Please model this.
Amino acid sequence: MSTVLVVDDEPQIARIAQDYLRHAGFEVLVARDGPSAVSLARTRAPDLIVLDLALPGLDGLDVTRTLRRESNVPIIMLTARVEESDRLLGLDVGADDYITKPFSPRELVARVRAVLRRADTRAASGDLVRLAD
Model:
């Protein structure tokens, strides 16, 4: 079972994402601010992170930058920032996908599955290359 860390300071958004992801068979962790997100990511090593940009303590861009220095964990940004410049910046700092609010919880689950499939494929390819060396 894959573990997803949902990071959002809006309890209703976090609850909706958590409910849909759990129903889809994922283990779900929740953080409400940037520092907690970094701490949980370090201690629990989730398979994927769903990350809001507007967070107390440390915004989502800084969380992404911090985690990218330490890990290649897939990150899907889920945010109310809809401008193209925001999407480009989010992807540029290391997000694997970007979803704007309001969002479809079913689409979120589909995107989580898709990003995890790509991550699993990359990991398997890397393992095959290393085994051939």
Notes: The first helix runs from residue 11 to 23. Helices lie at 11-23, 34-44, 60-70, 84-93, 105-132. The beta strands are 3-7, 27-31, 48-51, 75-79, 97-100. DSSP finds five helices and five strands in the chain.
